[in-house]
Design a protein that fits this description.
The complex is a heterodimer of chains A (about 260) and B (about 280). With about 260 residues, chain A is an all-alpha fold. Chain A has helices at about 10-35, 45-55, 65-100, 100-115, 120-130, 135-155, 160-170, 175-210, 215-225, 230-260. The longest helix of chain B has about 40 residues, at about 185-220. Chain B has a domain at about 85-230: MetI-like (MetI-like fold, Orthogonal Bundle), CATH 1.10.3720.10.
Chain lengths: ~260, ~280
């Protein structure tokens, strides 16, 4: 054999350290409360949060809904807004990247709206839609559409000019070049937008729910504060983080599936 | 000196004929059409009260902003509120970037630091910073510290992530060059790592700035006595759309200004960054 088999062994310390750090994190957190360093009105221990998590599956009180109801409301709102943002934002961004007329017409309005954080729309949406689901969907839509448009636009603009010239040489029409060359070559950027938009949507959903809601994970966090129950606040935060992470993983898997044939 | 044959030709400027198509595809013409349409529609909808009385006309908004500059709201003029928000952002943003950027660099340079910090960071990362508002109010009350805390939490993640990825994505050939030229580990870090990671760090700062604006607004909407978020929530409670829209315009301007400031800082501190065409 001309070359030896290379075996990569991880240094044992590198395996232990991450585990140790997580254990220390939860250990310190728990002991801060067990030994009364931090009063229990300010922070709940991990065990308390876990206990509430189990209880909330069956118990409606004190915030008026089951954990699953809160989660379902949040996911519903986030997804409606997210899908709408994709449906509008991606075609708009692609068209802005290729057709000068679309860019000329859409860009000034887009640039006017872009610097306003989506959260700032909340008071206006409460005027317009009340505190129901449509208002929150609108906020999430605004939040999600910006990264979609930017990434699709940049994706089309970054198309290799050699490919466009070649298509032109072979007599492709403007529309054919857009469909056959620009869109496929923009796809990796567009899929990058899916993740960014999701993170934006999820952040702003929590913001919208903190202010105007009667249901949902953000509402649960607010109720936890109003009722001075730190364990509920922490449970809400953990569930928001967890749900966001799970959705992110799902989208990542879908993206890998769909982009399997395209070199990134 | 001999004269060049086409010298006279180059002096004559070629001017494209003005056709309908040329006008229709002119960038500035399209921009003007678009903005006229946008403000026209806005004004029409507000004037005809299609959305009820919940939308103010553009001119009313401008007038109201002038009014807010001259009249105090809860002890502050519009400038005062804008400064209150900006100050919170600057404090939180500086604290977070001073901690997060060195930590991110250290994580990328030292695998032991990485092994200790990364798991905890990954645990915190998916939690939107806005979700921390309630707990920060429990901890710090509704004063300044709770808002600064939210901003620190929000800006920490992109700062650290970009510093970390910036160093990790440095081209390995650059290290080889330094090693070939006889550089030691110190040279590698200071001559290659930091300059190469600088653009990524600044991209992180830009992202954190927009996150910071989201955070400060959310915190001010929930509980505050000053700041631009307070202006718009007050406008909502008083049922004055002009005040809400005026506040939103002020927010957009302030956010734009801070991001221009960071962009300027980047140009001064890191002139070797390659510009990428785009939005």
């Amino acid at each position: 054999m001309s070359f030896a088999e290379v075996k990569i062994t991880k240094e044992p310390l590198m395996v232990i350290l991450p585990i140790l750090s997580i254990v220390a994190f939860f250990g310190i957190w728990q002991s801060l409360l067990s030994f009364g360093v931090v009063p229990s009105s300010l922070l709940a221990s991990p065990l308390q949060v876990l206990k509430l998590f189990i209880a909330k599956w069956t118990q409606v009180n004190p915030d008026g809904a089951l954990l699953t109801t809160h989660m379902w409301t949040s996911i519903q709102e986030a997804f409606t807004g997210y899908i709408l943002a994709l449906l509008v934002g991606i075609p708009l961004g692609l068209a802005m990247g290729w057709f000068p007329i679309v860019e000329g017409l859409a860009r000034p309005i887009f640039e006017l709206i872009r610097p306003i954080p989506p959260i700032a729309w909340i008071p206006l949406t409460i005027f317009w839609f009340g505190i129901g689901i449509p208002g929150k969907v609108f906020i999430i839509w605004i939040a999600g559409i910006v990264p979609c448009v930017i990434n699709s636009y940049v994706g089309v603009k970054m198309t290799n000019p050699v490919l466009i010239q070649m298509a032109r040489t072979y007599g492709a029409s403007n529309w054919q070049i857009f469909i056959k060359i620009c869109i496929p070559s923009a796809l990796p950027m567009v899929f990058g937008a899916l993740q960014i938009a999701l993170a934006y949507c999820w952040t702003n959903l929590v913001g919208a729910e903190l202010l105007a809601a009667d249901n949902g994970l953000g509402f649960m966090i607010t109720m936890g504060r109003r009722l001075a129950m730190p364990d509920m606040v922490l449970l809400g935060m953990a569930m928001v983080g967890l749900t966001g992470a799970v959705i992110g993983v799902i989208i990542d898997a879908v993206e890998k599936r769909l982009l399997a044939g395209i070199r990134r | 000196m001999t004269s060049i044959a086409n010298e006279t030709q180059s002096a004559k400027k070629e001017r494209a004929p003005i056709t309908v198509k040329a006008v229709l595809t002119n960038k500035w013409f399209l921009y003007a059409v678009s903005l006229t349409f946008f403000f026209g529609l806005w004004d029409y909808v507000a004037y005809k009260k299609i959305l009820g009385s919940s939308l103010a006309r553009p001119l009313e908004v401008v007038n109201y902003m002038g009014y807010m500059i001259n009249h105090r709201l809860a002890g502050n003029s519009l400038w005062g509120h804008a400064w209150a928000s900006t100050r919170r952002i600057l404090i939180g943003f500086s604290i977070a970037s001073l901690i997060a950027v060195p930590l991110g660099l250290m994580m990328a340079l030292n695998k032991y630091v990485n092994a200790i910090v990364k798991p905890i960071f990954d645990l915190m990362k998916p939690m939107p910073p806005i979700a921390w508002i309630s707990i920060s109010i429990l901890w710090f009350g509704i004063g300044e510290p709770s808002k600064v805390f939210i901003i620190i939490i929000g800006t920490f993640v992109p700062c650290l992530l970009n510093a970390y990825n910036g160093v990790r994505l440095v081209e390995p050939e650059l290290y080889d060059v330094v090693r070939v030229l006889g550089g030691n580990r110190r040279d590698e870090i200071f001559q290659v790592c930091f300059p190469a990671a600088f653009p990524a760090i600044f991209a992180g700062l830009q992202i954190s700035l927009s996150v910071a604006w989201t955070c400060v607004l959310a915190a001010e909407l929930v509980s505050a006595r000053s700041g631009l978020g307070y202006v718009i929530i007050k406008g909502m409670n008083l049922g004055r759309p002009a005040m809400v829209l005026g506040g939103m315009v002020a927010i957009a301007l302030a956010a734009l200004m801070t991001s221009q400031l960071v962009g300027l800082l980047e140009k001064v501190l890191c002139p070797w960054k390659r510009e990428i065409e785009g939005l």
